[in-house]
UniProtKB/TrEMBL annotation:
Its EC number is 1.1.99.2. It catalyses: (S)-2-hydroxyglutarate + A = 2-oxoglutarate + AH2. Its cofactor is FAD. Keywords: FAD, Flavoprotein, Oxidoreductase. This is L-2-hydroxyglutarate dehydrogenase, mitochondrial. The keyword Lyase does not apply. GO terms for molecular function: (S)-2-hydroxyglutarate dehydrogenase activity. Transmembrane segments: none annotated. InterPro entries: FAD-dep_OxRdtase, FAD/NAD-bd_sf. The lineage of its organism: Eukaryota, Viridiplantae, Streptophyta, Embryophyta, Tracheophyta. It is an enzyme of class 1 (oxidoreductase). It comes from the Eukaryota.
Amino acid sequence: MLKQDVVRVIKRRFHLPKLSETWRNAPKEKAECVVIGAGIVGLAVARELSLKGKEVLVLDSAPTFGTATSSRNSEVIHAGIYYPSNSLKARFCVRGRKLLYHYCSQRGIPHNQIGKLIVATGTSEIPKLNQLFNRGIQNGVENLRMLDASEAIKMEPELHCVKALLSPASGILDSHSLMLSLVGEAETNGATFSYNTAVIGGHLEGNQMVLHVCETKTLTNWDGNTPLQPDLLLMPKIVVNSSGLSAPTLAERFHGLNTAIIPPAYYARGSYFILSNANSTRHPPFKHLIYPVPEEGGLGVHVTLDLDGQLKFGPDVEWIPHVPDTTNFLNKFDYSVSADRVARFYPEIRKYYPNLKDGSLIPGYAGIRPKLHGPGQSACDFLIQGEDIHGVGGLVNLFGIESPGLTSSMAIAEYVPALLLGG
């Protein structure tokens, strides 16, 4: 968008008179609700707020919705097994799974409840598998069942394991179709989407939030140090910071927000490799999702299938040591998949799929996890901050919305409006 277009799309939607020029001579406009970030969670929140009769403006620095984490993941509907009891991840995953299956069924969004096997490939892993089983039961996951090796291999003849945990509630979906549906419903209910539009910071004027907004192309030549001049100062009543990978960076640039409550951000790249065998789509070696016991930073290199039957393995965990603000705001992460990484995949996969042939894996795609913990640190829960934490009325920050963020999206979208509007 041109600079004047960024202002025009908001004026056209909200029919507001031009206010007097203030801070840095940028025009100033009002809005009711602003959702920053058009990923799966931001879209679900925008839809929910629009269904509640709110005027919603969704801003994203990308040319369209869902270009970062939401389109670079395993597309798995998780059951809710892995997460500590009563954590936000556990609660939102279990609730979100039910909402997601219902939503997809009602709207014809492609999905398949194919089930998952979490496998112990050595006796030393059995205690951890038992812990996952007990945790899943505590979290309210239905129909979990422990299988001995013969039962699991009867279900999946190519599998090697000594014991397995069956999760029938797990599945897969078409995330793009889901996001397209959420965008359509939000727009039908009056929401406005402004792409190529970056929120680069903000400040408080009394109790009023002021967002600093500019064109994405303004950032492309930014050196990361020179103060950015906003094209627009936007004054909303409600702000949901759902900007994913850049959420902590954006919060740090909101003057007046207590920086002590903003968590440190960590980033982990996960690469996927695709099974290239000519018959793998027609006759995939597995019919269920196959997961090893979890590893540090992730759930291990696992088997997922897409809705066309294509088998993929991943993700691994590759910590990214330093991420400049420009990378965050413009999503300029390195998403390339190095063919050299495949050497790490073969031994991990062959622990449960010993018949994997040399040369059968080809590079697929990569995604970045927005983490709140670094290497060697304990995993963190989702962090959702409202006024009770940061003291700014009408602001909700969503931090660390990694897996199971897709599964949890509709449950988070229930929670955030309740936090903002009550009830």
